[in-house]
């Protein structure tokens, strides 16, 4: 079967998809469609290990297309000329037009990192951690004009512990989606797959997290605050304001002292087992923070963070 892969230039999902499709005996990867020059997916820009799908594809002998807009007539014509059986989409953030969806001989398949119809949209790993989700999954759908609305071809469950960071969940979703692609290739080749329509009455949709989504609010309960910390990991990190207005990025926290009398939300206390900050209903122990771009133990800021200081007052007053 002739396949065109669509993925972002720096995608940690697209990279294993590219390797898998280029080397699989049942697939002929005839092109990679990736980001236009100068554009990268924000999910991966701060990762310590970077990937470059264009360089990877050229090393494998796979032609690369980088149209400014994938739905422009010139791009559609170029893709039509490839005579693909399938478009495989994994972390490609341009919406394919109905005209483009009709180009492949069989269909377009999108691999989405969520239990569709729930968590449609962008950055499911952030929102699933933020909401304390325990029932995860990755889903392959036959693409339709509406974002993430197509019929389900396959869904692999991913039970979650509820303690994952966004980075841990994203990485696990990438791994599970790659396994699902490997499992699906024989059915795609034989055209023996079946589909089940999504129950769109159960659909939830989320956009890209905004700057305000990473701002910690200590007037919320401790469970909610701790989830926000894990959802912000590793970049940009969940943050609050010190009394002097400077930013403090908290990278990990856990339930804190049960013996310490609760104080005003955002109050910092130095205890024998480390720094604590008060949420609305309980203390959280701050484990690690960001300092000069690195993750360091909270104790490293002992000279900066004063006992009894109150964090986030600027945020509270803005509510």
Automatic annotation (TrEMBL):
Keywords in alphabetical order: Protein biosynthesis, Transferase
Pfam families attached to this UniProt entry: Formyl_trans_C (PF02911), Formyl_trans_N (PF00551)
Keyword Transferase appears in the UniProt entry: yes
One GO CC annotation: cytosol
Annotated Formyl transferase N-terminal domain residues: 2-181
Molecular function, one GO term: methionyl-tRNA formyltransferase activity
CDD domains: Met_tRNA_FMT_C (cd08704)
InterPro entries: Formyl_trans_C, Formyl_transf_N, Formyl_transf_N_sf, Formyl_transferase-like_C_sf, Met-tRNA-FMT_C
Key word Protein biosynthesis present: yes
Top-rank taxon: Bacteria
Domain Formyl transferase C-terminal: 213-295
Homology family: Belongs to the Fmt family.
Protein name as catalogued: Methionyl-tRNA formyltransferase
Organism: Actinorhabdospora filicis
């Amino acid at each position: 079967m002739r396949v065109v892969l669509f993925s972002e230039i720096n995608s940690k999902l697209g990279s294993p998809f590219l390797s898998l499709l280029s080397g699989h005996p049942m697939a002929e990867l005839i092109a990679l469609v990736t980001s236009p020059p100068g554009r990268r997916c924000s999910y991966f820009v701060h990762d310590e290990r970077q990937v470059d799908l264009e360089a990877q594809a050229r090393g494998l002998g796979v032609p690369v297309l980088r149209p400014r807009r994938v739905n422009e007539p010139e791009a559609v014509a170029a893709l039509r000329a490839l005579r693909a059986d399938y478009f495989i989409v994994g972390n490609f953030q341009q919406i394919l037009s109905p005209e483009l969806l009709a180009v492949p001989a069989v269909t377009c398949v999108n691999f989405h990192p969520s239990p569709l119809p729930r968590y449609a949209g962008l950055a499911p790993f952030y929102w699933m951690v933020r909401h304390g989700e325990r029932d995860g999954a990755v889903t392959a759908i036959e693409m339709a004009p509406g974002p993430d609305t197509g019929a389900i071809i396959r869904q692999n469950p991913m039970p979650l512990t509820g303690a994952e960071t966004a980075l841990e969940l994203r990485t696990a979703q990438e791994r599970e989606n790659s396994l699902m692609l490997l499992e699906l290739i024989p059915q795609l080749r034989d055209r023996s797959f079946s589909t089940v329509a999504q129950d769109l009455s159960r659909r939830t949709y989320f956009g890209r997290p905004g700057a305000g989504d990473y701002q910690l609010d200590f007037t919320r309960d401790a469970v909610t605050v701790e989830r926000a910390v894990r959802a912000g990991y590793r970049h940009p990190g969940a943050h609050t304001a010190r009394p002097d207005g400077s930013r403090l990025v908290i990278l990990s926290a856990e339930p804190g002292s049960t013996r310490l009398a609760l104080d005003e939300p955002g109050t910092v206390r130095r205890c024998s087992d480390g720094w604590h900050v008060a949420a609305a209903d309980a203390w959280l122990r701050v484990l690690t923070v960001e300092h000069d771009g690195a993750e360091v133990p909270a104790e490293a800021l002992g000279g900066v963070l004063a006992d009894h200081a109150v964090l986030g007052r600027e945020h509270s007053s803005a509510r």
